[in-house]
Structure formats: structure tokens, C-alpha cells
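XRE-family DNA-binding domain-containing protein: C-alpha cells wanted.
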Amino acid sequence: MTNIFSHQLITLRRRKNLSQNDLARKLYVSRQSISKWENGEAEPGIDKLINLSEVLGVDLDFLILGKEKLNDLIIKISGLKKAFSQPVLQGINLNIYGKDRIALLGSNGAGKSTLAKIIYGEIEADSGHIENHINIRNDLNVMTQNDVLMGDLTVIEHVQLTALIDKVYSRTFIEQMIRKFRLEKQKNTYVSKLSGGQKRRLALLLALLRESKLLLLDEPTVGMDLSSIDFFWRYLDHVGGCVITITHDFNQIDKYFSRVLLLKDGKIAQDISVDKIHSHNQTIEQWYRQYNDGEEQA
Ligand SMILES: Nc1ncnc2c1ncn2[C@@H]1O[C@H](COP(=O)(O)OP(=O)(O)OP(=O)(O)O)[C@@H](O)[C@H]1O
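Answer:
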């Protein structure tokens, strides 16, 4: 149990904005005990586990095993249509589950960003229905293609502001994230002065500050150098919940996704598990070239 429990404890404590001391006080234990539980050096007894689940507001199962009906349906999309001057989405039907790692593929202009924008509520569909089983405001994190960064803040100010808005403010956590995303040297640089790749890294950092049940990433690695791209995919592997990534970066996605969707002619033309693609001895890129036949390759 130790690894999952330790991870859950750290995550849930942060989500509640509690320090180790705060939690220790609530449970009538020492801060060192909390630290040992979080480091996997000791485990609490059953009475403390029950107290913990009450204080953290989660089921015992979820606290110990990390199982929160994770594979439940989180979004059901039916008959979704959207046109601008031309039809773009022409009847999207799609079920999204809590543990999915989805690569959303398709040619330029296929409508991937449009579908993402409808899911996170930036634009409305013309018709069709979206059944949300998550709270789009609290449980959805987005990193969009457009630069939504505020150029007249410094990197650290931007992270602090977003952490405050997301209610995950902690000085140590912010420093840690800036270090992890290799933006230490740029900490006091104005965002407007960052390079394109550094801006992408900052945008990703901001999207990952708070936990989410659904993380939507629209071409996250565009403009990143190779080491940032490596870092990005590895980091993504440790993010909890469902992740939907729009990407043309085929180099690494075989390792990090469980499901691939191909958007073509306004519909989900293919919906397949990565295991199935691999069982045919294909990479996702080979599969994509086969099924997106004749279309412009990205
Ligand atoms: N706000 C808008 N007004 C008019 N047309 C739009 C708008 N947004 C998107 N479109 C059009 O809808 C189509 C789909 O665009 P979308 O950005 O969803 O494609 P995409 O699959 O994300 O493409 P890419 O891979 O190039 O990012 C395109 O033809 C685009 O020009």
C-alpha cells in the first residue's frame, strides 16, 4: 500500500492546502509521523487512516488504493456539430473515461482544437449534447495553443498568481515547480521576454499546478527543444486523471498514451487502444498514416 498511500497523502494534503503541521495537529500526531507516512517510512494504524480519510474528505479506498472510480465515464459527447463558414464537426460521438490517456490526432484544420474548445467551454456547439460528470470549472485544466500568458508579470509572479487562483499557494511548492520546469534562471524575467519554448514550459507548469480530473493539452510541445519535450512527456506520465493531448509529435507518444482518436471529415473516424495498434506491430505514426490516408501529414 505504501507507495500509493504516500502519493495520495501528499496530493490530498496539498489539495486541501494543509501543511504537514496542520495535518499533524488535526490528527493529534507529530509532524514527523506525517513526514514518515509521506516518505513511505511508516504507515498509520487503521484509526488514523479513518481520521485521515475524514480530514481529507475522501473514501478510505481512495486514500489507500488511489481508486476513485477512476475508469468511470467523465464526459459523454453525442451528436456534436459545429460549423464556421464550413462544417467542421459533423456529429461527434465520444465517451471519455477517468483514466484515459488520449492522443487526439487529425490533419491541420480537422477540428481538433474546435472540439477541445467546446469541451472546455470556450465555444458552443451548434447542436448535440455534452454530458459532464466532472465539474468543468474545478476539475478541468487546460493548456491551450494560444498564448494566454500575462507578459507584464515576471515568471514567479505569474506562478504565484495562478497558484493563488487555483488555491494551491505554497512558497515551497511554487519554488519546486519552477525548479522542475527549469525556469529558475528566468524566475524574475518578464514573461514577455521569455523564448517561445520557455513560454510553453511556463504555460504547462501553470496548467499542472492544481490536480485535475481532465487535463486538455493543445499541441503542448510546439516550440520546445528536445530536452524540454523529453521532460514534458515524462512529466505527463505522472499526472493523475484523464489526459487528452492534441499533438502532431509522433516521436514519443507511443509510450504515453492508452487510446488514440482520429478526427477526420468532421467525425471520430477511429477510436482505438494503443495496445491494439502495437499488437499489429505498428507505431502510432504508421497507424496514423494508414488511416488518415491521402490527408496532409503534419
Ligand atoms: N473562430 C473561428 N472562426 C472561423 N473559423 C474557424 C474558427 N476556429 C476554427 N475555424 C476553422 O475550423 C476549422 C478547424 O479548425 P481547428 O483549429 O479546430 O483545427 P485543428 O484540427 O485544431 O487544426 P491544427 O492541427 O492546424 O491546429 C479550420 O478550417 C479553421 O479555419
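The chain has two domains: 2-65, 73-291. The longest strand covers residues 73-83.

Cheers.
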